[in-house]
Amino acid sequence: MLNSNTQSEFHLISMKFKMVREASLKIAEPLSEEDMQVQSMPEASPIKWHLAHTSWAFETFILKPHCKNYRVFNQKFEYLFNSYYNAIGQQFPRAQRGLLTRPDYKEVLAYRQHIDLNMLDFIEKLLPENESLINLLLLMINHEQQHQELMLTDIKHAFFVNPEYPVYKKSKSPEYVASPLQWKKHAAGLYEIGHKNESFYFDNEGPRHHAYLDSFAITSRLITCGEYLEFIENGGYQQASLWLSEAWSSIQSDKITSPFYWIKKQGKWFHYTLSGLIPLELNSPVMHINYFEANAYAASVDKRLPTEQEWEVASTDISLEGSYCDLDRLHPCTARGNDLQQMFGELWQWTSSSYNAYPGFKAPEGAIGEYNGKFMVNQYVLRGGSIATPRDHIRASYRNFFYPDASWQYTGIRLAETI
Q: Which of 145, 115, 142, 134 is nearest to 9 (CA)?
């Protein structure tokens, strides 16, 4: 029999499971079935696929191996909705997910309802001493929250491809004020890096370890559209000396002259948002910047990007307040005051750190070990979360990672310098 504390813990887990599952459907709510079918590039996925894949994850990693009498919804889904887990089996080609017109949306909804009913029943029967199973459940809940962010960024990309620039959800952007750019100094020293044994963290956030840092300073806010526009007008995209070689060849061949989602019409700049195409807000933080652009901008002002260790140290004692995944206001907040601002829940911030393992890292055994470890190559770490990140999903030690040419995520620029 469960004691009251354990019953309370399971109740909270059950509530979070239901809230997260409902939140995914809330993101899909403004969309038509045609919207949910489209796949605009190989790196993105249809909304319908996200809704099915997150259900597949609960079924594959929890219900099938741990629920004795579980009935599989559809055997074919193991192949259709497996993302990249080779230990599970073959996967339908990622770049062709938009071709999966069947199962249709109604069947995907039925699949989700089947998973929800079985999962809620299973959570009630979890044994309190089975800590590893509870951790696996929390991982799957957080996995769905990651896909909620991808749902928003993927549909934004799909809508941008449409020359009518559809509106996902109309919302008014704030009146932006950019406080003066200041530098926040941090002394040299030996710092602890990594998770602090929060109730949940991803395996790549540990083990907690020491890192020595030279004294450094970091900017008080994110770089604005106006500041980045000055970089453009000063010929930033035409100066080879500012760019890494791999980026420069792409800029030349693809004739890139501005950030992704920026459009110039009749001499005026606009940018595409989930509220449609709007005039460029000069005081809003510049977003959808890839690593190459962030690095080039830093070089243009004789600064650099922070390391992920510097970013984490700077974020100590900073409030986790931010815009996060507010579907009624999918815009980053304005920068006011002199304190360190816009650290969390506004835009993911590029660091100069390559995504690799912390000292002592060991991937978990089995298929779940493929979750983070096998991607530790050729990517860069981002910190802080974005306006598409669920509020209770982020923490200072959270390590996001993307390839350096990725622009469709909500990414921005914070500068650093050695002092």
A: 134
Give the pLDDT confidence of 35-46 residue by residue, as tens digits.
Answer: 999 999 999 999
Domain 4-161, CATH among 1.10.1060, 1.10.10, 1.20.120, 3.90.226: 1.20.120
Range of lowest pLDDT (73-77, 210-214, 307-311, 320-324)? 320-324
Q: Measure the CA–CA gap between 166 and 400, rounded to whole angstroms.
A: 28
> Is residue 342 left, alpha or beta, with left meaning phi > 0 and alpha meaning psi from -120 to 50?
left
Adjacent-strand bridge partners of 216:
186, 418
Residue 336 neighbours by CB distance under 10 Å = 12
Averaged over 130-134, what is the pLDDT?
83
Q: Return the pLDDT at 3.
A: 42
DSSP 231-257: HHHTTGGG-GGGS-HHHHHHHHHHT--
The three-point CA angle 379-248-415 to 5° equals 60
- Which residue ranges make up each domain of the chain? 4-161, 183-418
Which of 11-20, 121-130, 330-339: highest mean pLDDT? 11-20
Give percent of the chain above pLDDT 90: 81
The CA distance from 218 to 179, in Å, is: 15
Give me the residues paired with residue 192 across strands. Answer: 210
CATH, domain range 183-418: 3.90.1580.10
